[in-house]
Design a protein that fits this description.
- The protein has 117 residues and is of the alpha+beta class.
- The chain has a domain at 36-115.
- Helix content is 46%, strand content 13%.
- The chain has helices spanning 36-56, 61-69, 79-98, 112-115; strands at 10-13, 16-19, 24-27, 33-35.
- The strands form two sheets. The chain has a two-stranded antiparallel ribbon.
- Helix 1 (36-56) packs across helix 3.
- The protein is globular.
Length: 117
């Protein structure tokens, strides 16, 4: 029987450890400071948007590739891997946000909400 194990959410940084939810990965083009958690959630949100858009046109390449090749999950990626993924989608995500084309609101912790106040 396999044993369920919880992955550590701590990342070594300088002379100690920081929870990856609090680990700052970078700053987006609008000046939002993005933690590992917020960045992973933004990328998930974009994947959902792209999946829904592809399904509307009956284009299943995106989702079939995910199933065929596997995906370990954005929350399990290193900060560098997440930042590279974000670099590929930032313009599209921000454009979809501005145009109201995201399928649901960004998470409450996302600093994008502070820009609109």
């Amino acid at each position: 029987m396999s044993e369920n194990r919880v992955k550590s959410t701590e990342v070594a940084q300088d002379d100690g450890f920081v929870n990856q939810n609090d680990l700052v990965v970078g700053t987006d083009s609008r000046g939002c400071v993005l933690t590992h958690y917020v960045l992973a959630e933004r990328i998930v949100l974009d994947d959902v948007r792209l999946t829904m858009r592809a399904a509307e046109s009956q284009d299943y390449d995106f989702i079939s590739t995910r199933f065929a090749e596997g995906h370990r999950g954005y929350h399990n990626m290193s900060p560098g891997e997440l930042w590279a993924e974000w670099g590929d989608i930032e313009d599209g995500w921000l454009g979809a946000y501005d145009d109201g084309e995201l399928p649901y609101e960004p998470i409450e912790e996302d600093p994008i909400h502070k820009l609109n106040k």
